[in-house]
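Q: I have two molecules that I believe assemble together. Could you output structure tokens for the complex as a whole instead of separate predictions?
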Amino acid sequence: MTLKVEHDLHKRRLDKNVGLGVLLAAFVAIVLGLTVVKVQTLDDPREMERFDHVARPALEEAARDQSQEGAE
Amino acid sequence: MTDVTQQTMQPGEARMGDYYALMKPRVMQLVVFTALVGLLAAPVAVHPFIAFVGILCIAVGAGASGALNMWWDADIDALMTRTQSRPVPAGRVQPGEALGIGLALSGFSVILLALATNLLAAGLLAFTIFFYAVVYSMWLKRTTPQNIVIGGAAGAFPPMVGWAVATGGIAPESLLMFALIFMWTPPHFWALALFVKSDYGNAKVPMLTETHGRRATRNHILGYTIALVPVALAIAFTEVGGPVYLAAALLLNGWFLSGALAIWRRDDAASEADSHATEKRVFKASLYYLFGHFGALLIEALLRNHGLGGW
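A: Yes, here they are, computed for all two components at once.
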């Protein structure tokens, strides 16, 4: 049996497929929005540089200074 | 080789609306509203987008517990007129699908809430889902007539979660909002049980009307409504309350109490004679009661933002 290009099955599942597509797009928008908001509301912009998996001596020094101040 | 025509013959294929119905959208409305009030009444400002995501997670979490409830209760839902057209008993959604959607959305909502807000809010949401799906649906509902009383806690958590989203903590105000819904749930559901009595009996759900009789149910409605009044009024004298809330609470409690008294005074003969008109009226009033209290808290919160409201 040959599968018709526009089978009845496709028509009936259209709303499910469109719905799922919209939900996935909304999920991407939410993650993007959360990322933007979280970064914008950081107290110290340097905080976001700490997680980029690149050695940053300046940041490490600053962190060491902070922990020493905390210890004192 | 699979023949496509076989798939097209499957009865009751689910549409997007069936998956939405699985999440109990009417219950979700109440959850979203009370959680939003809990969030806005809190004394800590939240970024609007974080607040939106927080409320969305609470709504999805509530929907997930609704799907798990429908998966577990499909057998008894099929026996009750009110519930037999739900997607699982009607055969439009397979039980395994409902379970999968419930579990996936539970995990999704709790993890996203933890990432977007804080661990306490996410923990409370996880506990709420567990309480509704496991403690209420799987354990209490079919074993004790106190199912509604204890299970009501699941519906009472959302304003606490909303408060935790904003503050990261628990406070007397959020506990009182919890107590308000917790104490309101029994008279609300028992009023419903008085006019859909035969349904719960058919499904062998030990609703108070079946186990202790309708007279005892009327007594319980009055008792719980009297106990509800001080809880509702106490909120007026906290930081989230104020004169607007107090005025609304006095009116709504007077209204609800008079309805509970009317139910208590009636017997079954009078109730049957007018097709349970009073019970239906009080059930409807109970919905306005809860929306009224949380609406008043919302007004107080908005007034406070403009330097008004409060004491």
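A: One point stands out. The helical segments of chain A are 8-12, 14-40, 57-71.
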